[in-house]
Specification:
Strand content: 5-15%
Order of helices and strands: HHEHEEEHEEHEEEEHHHEEEEHEHHHH
Number of strands: 15
Number of domains: 2
Distance between the termini: 23 Å
Largest sheet: 11 strands, mixed
Helix content: 40-55%
Structural class: alpha+beta
């Protein structure tokens, strides 16, 4: 007598009851697994992208927004800060700051953010060049592995950027010089995978072109309106030959790769290479933020953020503290969903108990026949227990499939929106614990029906039949 086969046939003889129990188990387990996978990968992304950064300095606004924007690149900047206010932070002898990395944001390519920075940014995330070389001149870019994979970009490819942090297909800088891919990063499983990196003057030059073209359009309209009253050659304020300088002479610009930005010559001379450019040489410019690492954890480091917030027009935010706030906010919602999932699993256990217990009345004659054919009380007990355990295992497998499938579906949407990938193929230790919980629940739910089945009276049951 194959007791496992018999238990399976008993289950499938009542398909609706079996399906209900499986769905309840599956939904509860699926929700728990889904929450575990999402929570694990969100925390993983948070931890990897902290990159040992102690402080982010930027324009006043929301500290959390500033952290999410400048470290995780999933929010908008709070504003810009003048270089002249932060030049002293680059002093190698600064008593508090060990390293300061500038960031300049404002443009994107197909919603992948273009970040103006220096080469020390790569060191924060241990990012290494897989192909090509580091950015050298203005408009040279190094792209993350995810950008290269999703957009099919290769070394030497060129493209225009779009204004803003999301590509709306409208604000494309389809003028001036194109960005050129000179390097591709190795996958690092950090935010560097989804960024397009260049030097800071490139960001300034792009927006100089935008402002310059707008100014030229204004001048041309004004000249056209006053054409009958003014002679263009005598109008010193609108001498277009003079006005069309290196910053707007596109032929010359392409040939010599020069960008005249507010009096600064950002050419391909050594002054503007990735290795020799010094941000502090441009005090009149603006950047988005500064990523700061401290020398130590002394009292000066503790007081440093407060001093910036109280004594300057800038804001300092501590990433670890802000991310803990995000986790706390996420944790409240996650805890509620987890409680809901546990409630569903508990209800599924009750449903299993009711199903097995109520089925005994119609199975008395069958159980008595089993006893006559040589089955012991232990055999009947084991049969009912096996039915409960089989349902628990099948519900677990269904729940695992639903949970991982949910991550696959939602992960694709999250990646499209935030460029962070969520893999459904991760297996967590907690998923083994869930199996153990379900086996215990299946055993407990079938225990009373199993005891009742094992006490079936043969003579009385056959006499009634």
């Amino acid at each position: 007598m194959n007791i496992i086969k018999l238990a399976w046939k008993n289950l499938i003889s009542k398909p609706l009851s079996m399906l209900l129990n499986l769905l309840l188990f599956g939904l509860g387990v699926g929700l728990v697994v889904f929450l575990l996978l999402i929570n694990f990968q969100v925390n993983q992304n948070f931890e990897k992208n902290l990159a040992g950064i102690d402080l982010v300095v930027g324009a006043k606004g929301s500290p959390m927004q500033m952290i999410l924007c400048n470290m995780y690149h999933i929010d908008a900047p709070t504003g810009n800060i003048p270089v002249k206010d932060i030049v002293h932070y680059f002093n190698p002898k600064h008593p508090v700051i060990k390293q300061a990395v500038p960031l300049s944001l404002g443009d994107n390519y197909r919603s992948y953010r273009i970040v103006g920075t220096d080469t020390s940014f790569l060191g924060l995330y241990n990012a290494k060049i897989a192909e090509g070389k580091i950015w050298y001149a203005d408009y040279d870019v190094v792209i993350g592995s995810l950008v290269a994979e999703k957009e099919g970009l290769e070394l030497g490819d060129q493209f225009y950027s779009s204004h803003g942090l999301v590509d709306d297909g409208i604000n494309v800088h389809d003028h001036g010089q194109k960005f050129k891919v000179t390097g591709i990063l190795q996958p690092s499983q950090t935010v560097a995978d989804q960024l397009i990196l260049c030097n800071t003057p490139t960001i300034w030059a792009v927006h100089d072109h935008e402002e310059g073209d707008h100014a030229e359009g204004t001048h041309e309209e004004h000249d056209h309106a006053d054409h009958d009253e003014h002679n263009h050659e005598d109008h010193a304020g609108h001498d277009h030959d003079a006005h069309n300088h290196a910053g707007h002479d596109h032929d010359s610009h392409k040939e010599h790769d020069t960008h005249d930005h507010a009096g600064h010559d950002h050419s391909t001379s050594p002054k503007n290479t990735a290795s020799t450019f010094q941000l502090q040489d441009h005090p009149d410019e603006f950047i988005t933020s500064l990523l700061v690492k401290f020398r130590g954890r002394g009292i000066q480091a503790l007081n440093f953020p407060r001093a910036i917030n109280e004594q300057t027009d800038m804001m300092a935010a501590q990433p670890a503290w802000q991310i803990n706030r995000v986790r706390d906010m996420m944790g409240s919602g996650t805890d509620m969903l987890r409680l809901l999932a546990m409630a569903i699993i508990f209800v599924s256990g009750i449903s299993l108990f009711i199903s097995l217990f109520s089925s005994l009345r119609g199975r008395k004659y069958e159980l008595a026949i089993l006893r006559v054919m040589g089955g012991s009380r232990k055999t009947l007990f084991s049969l009912i227990i096996l039915e409960g355990l089989i349902l628990a295992v099948l519900g677990y497998l269904l729940g695992i499939a639903l949970g991982h499938f949910g991550v696959s579906v939602l992960g694709g949407q999250l990646e499209a929106s935030y460029k962070y990938s969520f893999s459904p193929w991760i297996w967590l230790t907690e998923e083994y614990y869930i199996l153990g919980v379900l086996l215990v629940l299946g055993f407990v739910a079938s225990l009373i029906p199993a005891i009742k089945a094992s006490r079936t009276a043969i003579s009385e049951t056959l006499g009634e039949g």
